[in-house]
Prior knowledge:
This protein has 13 helices and 8 strands. The protein is an alpha/beta fold. Helix 1 (about 15-20) crosses helix 3, helix 2 crosses helix 7 (about 155-170) and helix 3 packs across helix 4 (about 95-105). The protein has helices spanning about 15-20, 40-50, 75-80, 95-105, 115-120, 135-150, 155-170, 170-185, 195-200, 210-215, 225-235, 250-260, 280-295; strands at about 35-40, 55-60, 85-90, 110-115, 185-190, 205, 240-245, 265-270.
Amino acid sequence: MSRAVAFAVAAALAPLTAAACAQNQPHLDTGVLNVVAGENFWGSVAAQIGGSHVRVTSIVSDPNADPHLYESSAASAAAVGAAELVIENGAGYDDFLTKLLGATSGGNRAVIDIQAVLGKTGSDVNPHFWYDVPHVPRIASAIETALARIEPANTPSFQANLAAFDASLQPIAAVISQIRERHLHAPVAYTERVPEYLLIAAGLDVKTPAGFARAIEDGNDPGPGDTAAMDRLISSRGIDALLYNAQAVSAITQSAQKLAQEARIPIVPVTETLPPAYATYQAWQLGQTQALLRALGG
């Protein structure tokens, strides 16, 4: 993602580093590992796989805040410094975590880069990997492998939890299959690329002008041509549903939402972080996928 995640100014790095080093103690609580996830959806996955053997801290978790604008804190630095496993999304989405890793001393700290796990490369990679449900088992497996290497004695527990997690994704896969079967190539649009992986998996055709989505994702206003194209797409009912990022709202996206309402096009709100109303990552993704199916008339 080209929009840089906001980070504390360089002058703030010194106290952050000091705070982290002060709490960077070796693993003393046998069987309980300190895990830090850049975002709460990956924290949810790690907590389920680690079970009672992990203590998970998720840095970005505020459902009312734009994750792209997150600013790090001394508490975040301390958590990263004390972690035995850190999970970062990568692809520029959580650059604050990359900087914290560089500014703190982690000893034998293990780091999982989700982008690297998925092998996503290129200058325009969509960083919203958590919407790529068919490939989430690869990420869960990487977490299980890392935990087992750190705490081999608990490997059977980690493996059992991984199997249970993978099985819990099946209801989401079933709904995605229903969308493909009933609405293959149905035209849809989004205000930005947050749910793109889900739409691809479901076999839907995204009609959003590329320049419109890129500008919104970068925190900019789209050009007049892209805005006009998006307005025409919605006003002419050229789509069957609009997926709306409810966590990163601007005057432009609100205008698109209003046009969809006026055109009586179903709107599916999506979010970038796991809302408190959902207990787990998979419950959240199932709810949003079911909402998409209903919006398409399923």
